[in-house]
Amino acid sequence: MLSQPKVTDTFWRRYMDIVRDEVIPYQWEALNDRIEGAAKSHAIENIRIAAGVAEGEYHGFVFQDSDVAKWLEAVAYSLATDPNPELEKIADELIALLGKAQQEDGYLNTYFTVKEPEARWTNLRDQHELYCAGHMMEAAVAYYRATGKRELLDIMCRFADYIDSVFGVEEGKIQGYDGHQEIELALVKLYEVTGNEKYLKLSTFFIEERGKQPHFFDKESEARGDNNPFWYFGSYKYSQSHLPVREQKEAVGHSVRAMYMYAAMADLAEKTGDATLKEACKTLWDNVTNKQMYITAGIGSSEFGEAFSFDYDLPNDLSYTETCASIGLVFWARRMLNLEVNSSYADVMERALYNGTISGMELDGKKFFYVNPLEVWPEACSRHEKRHVKPVRQKWFNCACCPPNLARLIASNGQYIYTERNNEIFVNLYMGNEASFEFNGKKVNIVQKTEYPWDGAVLISVSPEAATEFTVALRIPGWCRKADLKVNGENVAVENTVNGYMYLTRTWNPDDQIELKFDMPVERMKAHPRVRENAGKTALQRGPIVYCIEEVDNGANLPNISLPQNARLEAYFDGDLLGGVVVIQAEAARLEESHWGQALYKAAEEKYQSHTLKAVPYFAWCNRKPGEMLVWLNEN
Amino acid sequence: MLSQPKVTDTFWRRYMDIVRDEVIPYQWEALNDRIEGAAKSHAIENIRIAAGVAEGEYHGFVFQDSDVAKWLEAVAYSLATDPNPELEKIADELIALLGKAQQEDGYLNTYFTVKEPEARWTNLRDQHELYCAGHMMEAAVAYYRATGKRELLDIMCRFADYIDSVFGVEEGKIQGYDGHQEIELALVKLYEVTGNEKYLKLSTFFIEERGKQPHFFDKESEARGDNNPFWYFGSYKYSQSHLPVREQKEAVGHSVRAMYMYAAMADLAEKTGDATLKEACKTLWDNVTNKQMYITAGIGSSEFGEAFSFDYDLPNDLSYTETCASIGLVFWARRMLNLEVNSSYADVMERALYNGTISGMELDGKKFFYVNPLEVWPEACSRHEKRHVKPVRQKWFNCACCPPNLARLIASNGQYIYTERNNEIFVNLYMGNEASFEFNGKKVNIVQKTEYPWDGAVLISVSPEAATEFTVALRIPGWCRKADLKVNGENVAVENTVNGYMYLTRTWNPDDQIELKFDMPVERMKAHPRVRENAGKTALQRGPIVYCIEEVDNGANLPNISLPQNARLEAYFDGDLLGGVVVIQAEAARLEESHWGQALYKAAEEKYQSHTLKAVPYFAWCNRKPGEMLVWLNEN
Q: Which of A302, B159, B467, B537 has its CA 20 to 30 A from that of B9?
């Protein structure tokens, strides 16, 4: 790929503009404690104190630095497509400040520099020390790629070199790893831009050490004089360090930690060609996506530990489904596609991008969900078991990991469209964009035009500077039952797809045109019979978009609405609604209440009245009058 | 009533025998810490230490004494119907020990005597000081009534006199009340046997003080130097002291506390004729039974605070529904019947007696449920939100309130059968028993024979020593749609019932016979449309018995079983099953799983296979191989 694709897509451009115009500026103010009424971040002030340009005490979580790193990474992606000298100046000044905060030996972490300098590397299990380093490495790589400026990259290479001198199997080094995976994937990125194999080896070391016995966290906590059992059921499943990674067959523990680790494993399997590591990735992928994922691509069904629960345990009203976890799933899916071209990875990536990730942000970019449930009864959020479920998005969070994570995802979404392999270009996502590649030494421009996800028509112009042979492989989405394909106006049968991709291998000429048309009817989705929560229920999906019903459209008590098996499901585009979305309408039934009387229980016939059901995209719920929401609908 | 009815009932005798032969002896061993592998109670040892016959430290909850009191009360009821000199000797010795543990001023509480003598009456909010006193008063009254022995009654009158000298509106007295209501209803009992109005007035004082502002618990905690907000959402709703009792319109907070308070309010309304207090009772009754009660008569849907949630919030899998709360509901219902004859109270009382109370005990009396959910997926009990739901009964509990509470309920069940008023006898419950009354100065024997709840036929012989006129009023159960009635072989039309009772006012002669036959088909019950959890679901009920399906009969994944709207529901008695129960059988459908494959979500038609559904009484669930259980069944 000669450059990052320039996203011109109607759907995604709106989000990218919001990230550029609203989210990034707002988060900068938040990081600087300038938002009235919002929880104080103190993150920039911590850096200023560590840099010696301000005085005071450290405040915030031990991982407060990572919010700054994620913001900086989002800024980098945004600058890559939307130059903004003023924003770049702010970022440069922040990077200069980070340079000052870096210690002589290369160490960079404001918590340990300001608050506990003597405790450096004594509690990897809980203190996110390498996690913060990883996020700043990701920011450094992104900023370097976007601007060509090396300052932060150099800072983080120095830090990485120092970390490499501290951790390792060699005598005198710490033979351990972080309680929150992140540096593993970041080091691979550092390796990619620098070519320095030391970083790849260090990443491999962290992954290979994980879960070995005697357990590093036991040794470490014993050294601290801490003999309490670990708070998470006394189990290191929480941080996926209960077993060596190749022995892990099921996703367990904290879901974001899991995603970052699996992503790094996929990276390493790809870079090193390690077949057993690849197998481990595939086993875990199968478990997550076929047994522990909501239809929105939300993962992590348990609030306790922000964690995976167990196979098929997917309660809709208790779900945790952290925004960051779905974002992590996108990261992992992208890397699985690098490891092995298969549309099932792209299907999940698409499901997450259009549903469980962006549901985390209000359409105006000003409020966020940390938790993305599939069923909300606002009154029931007062129950102790549901106190994590917020019926409306919040301005900012004490633990503000999700908003900047979402910002960096959206700002970098062009990176998910294509996979390049030798003389092959795989189109994973359909999204308006302009990209350029080089095949057989010739520059090839590829331009996509589409109104996806609302319309299944996609126009792809493939334009080499001169005729040359290569392959364009088109993903046929898993949700699509009928796809029409034309190349330069001529029909091409969609058949003999390989791992879900339709290969077009030919001599391409300037201005060649691919026309795709994916049938996009409303589908009644069913869950696997073991997902007992959804027995007798259906969810509506059209293209990649999962739908929900809201109280504002359907009145209160949504579970009393029932969709007949034979209901006609109409879809229409409403340009004025929720920024322009396709709405689904159907004649449904609603349990009558008026005749019932007082009794709680009766041997009575139920009465139904007709109800025109209106469903809207799940990602856009709670952008009007707050109220109930439901994805899985009762049927009759 | 000339004496307590002697219960001869097939169904209940078995339970009473178990209480006598298993529960009471087992609990005595448990209270004496002689059960291997069970949590230590230390309750008797605490009394021995307080009595000065042993040395050591206090152990257990602050309310450990109340376990002994409830046990002693159960023993009293058992002795009343089943004399047992050996048991009576043990009880007498325990009472002598309690006499020694009583302080000179009349005070009796082992926690404050042994552990915190200086802290007496400083933390009524949390320390259950008057609660323990109340339970021992109940035991004293029961023991006096059963044996005629006054020793414990005298001990508790001395204590009550002392309490009366400490609490009151008069200058220098504590103007407060206990954080756990109980003494209020106990003092009414003490008044009933002694005729001493002081006790009735003291009970009234506690009820009337409750919820007044400035709040007693605030003043009290301020005096202790404790300025923390109260742990229950910072609210005294927990102990129903957030408002004066007449201003309370909804049941809130800890459900057992609520039941004991409402029971005392009904007692006082009856004894004093206080119309506004009666109205308050009726308002709360309506709220609990029409908006916050499970079909099993389980109440308190929230684990946090063991508490009521809010109207129509009745999740089946998260329910707390403590055994003690349903027992408390029986106490309250019984008193509402005293206050006002209306079969709706008896209907709820019966629902609790046959379902949500006895479900708390294994059929052999050796294990107990504290929590009585309506849906159990054992694997999901590992979820943090469901850790209170145990998939199997436990041997004993740290907080062992439920087993002895159930023992005293079962041992005293004869007290719930009749209500007597002037020359009227109301038959609230149908249960084999022999009782005697006096009307117009003539002794009247009443004998019931029935195989209730399995069969709707009831034979009642009404036998005055000589012909005399009085009224026998028969409750027509709310669940019954057709009842046949004969008096001395002649049909009597069941019509013009008054508040659910059929009045038979006539001159009764020796050996008059009433024959009742209640139609008892299997009913498909529906929940109020606002109980969203049960939308599209049905529960099976036959007579007063609520049914459930279990994995042992129906295989795993019970929510995948669906009962057709038109299914024929067959009931048959199986004498070998679960001690002899009526079983319900129906042709149902089960979601097929084998064809589905791996995918979690598909736009697929569901396939069903036929399944012969077998339902058993809810109270008897988990008496065979443990597994899933479900009350509310999906329909198709």
A: B467
Total residues found in chain A within this entry = 636
A46 and A97 co-located in one domain: yes
User: What pLDDT digit, counting tens, does each position of A550-601 carry?
Assistant: 999 999 999 999 999 999 999 999 999 999 999 999 999 999 998 899 999 9
Of A354, A481, A505, give the one whose Cα is nearest residue A416: A354
Distance between terminal CA atoms of chain B?
51
Cis peptide leading into A403, omega within 30 of 0?
Answer: no
- Residue stretches of chain A with pLDDT short of 70: 1-2, 396-401
Q: At a CB cut-off of 8 Å and minimum separation 6, what does B598 contact?
A: A286, A290
Give the pLDDT score at A399. 61
| Residue type at A531 in one-letter notation | V
> Would residue B622 show up in a list of annotated catalytic residues for this protein?
no
**For residue B623, is it within any domain?**
yes
Q: How many distinct structural domains can be found in chain B?
A: 3
The residue written with tokens 């009913």 in the block is B523
Say if residues A287 and A251 touch (Cβ distance below 8 Å).
yes
Q: Residue A528: which of B385, B526, B596 has the nearest Cβ?
A: B596
Distance CA A429, CA A87 (A): 29
Check CB contact of A472 with chain B, cutoff 8 Å: no
Distance CA B54, CA B60 (A): 16
Last residue in a domain, options A488, A518, A548: A518
First to last CA, chain A: 51
B222 touches chain A (CB under 8 A): no
Residue B65 CA to residue B57 CA, distance in Å, equals 14
Distance of CA A327 to the CA centre of its chain: 1
The structure's pTM equals 0.95
Residue A486 CB-density burial (10 A; 0-12 exposed, 13-18 middle, 19+ buried): middle
> Got the DSSP string for B522-555?
EEEEEE-TT-GGGTTEEEEEETTEEEEEEHHHH-
The encoded tokens of residue B251 equal: 């049941």
Residue A327 placed within a domain: no
Expressed as residue numbers, the domain containing A502 is: 418-518
In SS3 terms, A275-339 reads as HHHHHHHHHHHHHHHHHCECCCCCECCECCCCECCCCCCCCCCCCCCEHHHHHHHHHHHHHHHHH
Return the structure tokens found at A286. Answer: 């199968």
Nearest CA in chain B to A608: B529
Q: What is the DSSP letter of A39?
A: P
Q: How far is B394 from chain A (nearest CA, A)?
A: 21
Give the residues across from B507 on adjacent strands: B469
Contact at 8 Å (CB) between B108 and B43?
Answer: no
Would an 8 Å CB–CB cutoff place B291 in contact with chain A? yes
CA–CA gap between residue A41 and residue A23 (Å, rounded):
15
Asked whether the ipTM of the predicted complex exceeds the cut of 0.85, the reply is: yes
Which residues numbered 478-537 in A keep a CB inside 8 Å of some CB on B? 479, 481, 523-533, 535-536
Distance (Å, rounded) from C-alpha B344 to C-alpha B333?
Answer: 9
∠B46-B52-B53 over CA atoms, to 5°? 85
Residue after which a domain boundary falls, among B518, B534, B549: B518
Active site residue A306: yes
Q: What one-letter code names the amino acid at A584? A: I
B396 pLDDT band, cuts 50/70/90, is low
Shared-domain flag, residues B577 and B478: no
**Residue B159 and residue B190 share a domain:** yes
Residues B466 and B580 grouped into a single domain: no
Distance CA B12, CA B280 (A): 33
The residues near B299 (Cβ < 8 Å, ≥ 6 apart) are B251, B255, B259, B288, B292, B293, B308, B321, B325, B326, B329, B356
Inter-CA distances, B258 with A180, B354, B476, B520, Å: 46, 21, 28, 33
Q: At what angle do helices A183-194 and A151-166 cross, to 10 degrees?
A: 120
